[in-house]
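Hi team,

Filling in the usual template for the complex we talked about on Friday. All components are listed, including any nucleic acid strands or ligand strings, so the model treats them as one assembly.

SUBMITTER: L.P.
PURPOSE: interface mapping
COMPONENTS: six
RESIDUES: 836
SEQUENCES:
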Amino acid sequence: MAYRTTPKMVERKQARRNALLTAAIRLFGRKGFHATTVPKIVAAAHSSTGSFYFYFKNKEDIFAAALEVIGESISQALNEAIAAAGPEVLRQMRTAVKALVRFLADHPEEARILIIESSGLGKRLETVRRNLVASHTRSVEHALTAIRGQLPPMETAVVASCWVGAVYESVFHWLEQPPDQRLPAGQLAQAIASFNLRAVGAPREVLQE
Amino acid sequence: MAYRTTPKMVERKQARRNALLTAAIRLFGRKGFHATTVPKIVAAAHSSTGSFYFYFKNKEDIFAAALEVIGESISQALNEAIAAAGPEVLRQMRTAVKALVRFLADHPEEARILIIESSGLGKRLETVRRNLVASHTRSVEHALTAIRGQLPPMETAVVASCWVGAVYESVFHWLEQPPDQRLPAGQLAQAIASFNLRAVGAPREVLQE
Amino acid sequence: MAYRTTPKMVERKQARRNALLTAAIRLFGRKGFHATTVPKIVAAAHSSTGSFYFYFKNKEDIFAAALEVIGESISQALNEAIAAAGPEVLRQMRTAVKALVRFLADHPEEARILIIESSGLGKRLETVRRNLVASHTRSVEHALTAIRGQLPPMETAVVASCWVGAVYESVFHWLEQPPDQRLPAGQLAQAIASFNLRAVGAPREVLQE
Amino acid sequence: MAYRTTPKMVERKQARRNALLTAAIRLFGRKGFHATTVPKIVAAAHSSTGSFYFYFKNKEDIFAAALEVIGESISQALNEAIAAAGPEVLRQMRTAVKALVRFLADHPEEARILIIESSGLGKRLETVRRNLVASHTRSVEHALTAIRGQLPPMETAVVASCWVGAVYESVFHWLEQPPDQRLPAGQLAQAIASFNLRAVGAPREVLQE
DNA sequence: GATGAATGAGGCTTCATTCAT
DNA sequence: CATGAATGAAGCCTCATTCAT
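RESULT (copied from the run log):
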């Protein structure tokens, strides 16, 4: 009757929530939102329907949570990469693209959720996904604005969209191919980065790795 | 054995089928595949469940038909544009991009179906959609290969994906914005075309309209 | 404007009706009543839905017509056999059983309709089928009554049912087996006839063929 | 992790399942497989569609379950009867027939399901039903083989089918008659048993009860 | 008479969500 | 907090039947 929530309980709580979330990410990534049913998630997580609705408001909610987790993972990966890239903006951008491609290539389920499976899911989720993508787009836009002087004039908002679209679509296409016919991830990343950098008129030196 | 199929009957048949297909495209474009139900389609087309299944095998089937119609419309638009662009490949490519952007901007429902709503829908539809997008990608790839000598070396397959992705994502982003805040379609098209052409290393002259 | 119905027309009419009926019998016999759809019947008969409903009131109607055709074929086969069997009643009965078994074995589709597929089909058809079977049962009952003196006392109505049931069930069972594992039809007929004759207490001499 | 399945829950589960199954048996027996719809079953059982599909895979499944329940009831009735009949095989057979007839006469819905309504329902159900009937047939066959020496030579497999068919058809016929015109069940059973025993050439003594 | 397009009632089934234990 | 049985709305689809040509 003493403590309502001991530390151990909190831990367990998180553990169960995570188990559900992890299972959900795997299933969403493999089968998509609609083909993934709540019963399947709870089965995969060795949990129960009741628990599911204790931790998540509904199916949309866990999908949104999944998107957020993915978004955070990506942010982290990008930030680390950028931090390691030194102060030069174009170099940071190149590094960021490559980090993003690598992340998506290494986490195909997350990639599918982000790029493919979260389309056409109703306003709420579309918004969550949009924000995620938009945060990338905005980063690109910021960067471009910061070095505006070094580059030819351009419609930065549109260019930022193109930049992100180029990454997503080509990774998507790459993921759709049978693994044994894929270009090595490194080359894919390099090719995309070059495409984008050239597209914004980066000087020749930064195009090579 | 008397009356076979009179021309008038054939006409009506086509009309009915088209009514269903048109209604379906509108709904798919607005609400997506899953939120569009067969009852809603038949209601919008002033038809009946029975007729629906007389003309289409099932819901997937009409979606595939919709994608095909869209694909054909786009092909036609692109071919016309390219034909009018003269013999120079890079100029053709620029024209094609702009024609595509214009088409998508003018047909937002079709655009949504193509870009967003047809992802993550199961193998059959994914294939149809893939073929459609792939046909664009391949066209780009062909063009790039044809003028390989004039351009810096590149991973053409990846570049083609980037090219298409840049178009789709930026148009999508544009469509998501409230109409009164949108860049004029012409400028959008111009910006995307420039992005892509610069990305493949086109000489400065072709970058301007 | 002269004759409303020429003989040739009557002929054609019959021909089309027969085509439908024949196709229906084949399909009913193979797939059963419910799995046989009107579209399938008209397709198999190279006819049309409209014609179907011109010649038959509805699906039940054509099934009833099929049962009648089958009943008539069987009656004819039995009458011929009995006529050829001479005046002795028990010999007639034995002949009749064997003729029935042969007919069913030779016409498996008709047999399936009569024995299997027409069960559980609603009052109307059950009645038609029942009358058919009942007419056999009654024949048996008549015969038994006619020679009451030569046989041990028995509940003739029940015995007649048993007699018919023995035939149907064993033919049914026989039909269900793969053709290459079946007893030859002649032996089957013989075995059933013996069973029934012995069951009514027929003297030893008539048990053999 | 606290409360697992309490005994009370298991009890309720069984109760709910049984309610559905019982309602289904009644409806199947009265209206047949096709005329019995899932909504009707759940209404009769005061349950819900969801529960139905929680306990049974589909409509076929509950029909199969019904057949199994019926089969078990019959087996039990027969085994009890046989056990009480002493060691003599022919006497056991006579007892078994009478027990079966009594069971069917006492359970007309179950009888209809077994004899009539389960024919022509597709492979799966046909198999279940076949196995049920076949188990009777085989019992008869075993018995006949066991006492082969005391009986005239015969095609035991065919004879077993005849035996079962005689029972089913005559009970069916009996059930079809209005209750007030029916022979008392005891006499029916006696008549059928005599028919079958005489048919296999049983000596006169066992023919009487 | 013949044709086949059109209709719509109604069946089966799934699954997100709730709630008693 | 955990469990899983229960619910029922709603979707997809089939098919017997009608009717305009």
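MY TAKE: The CA atoms of residues 105 and 180 of chain D lie 14 Å apart. The two ends of chain D are 62 Å apart (CA to CA).

Thanks, L.
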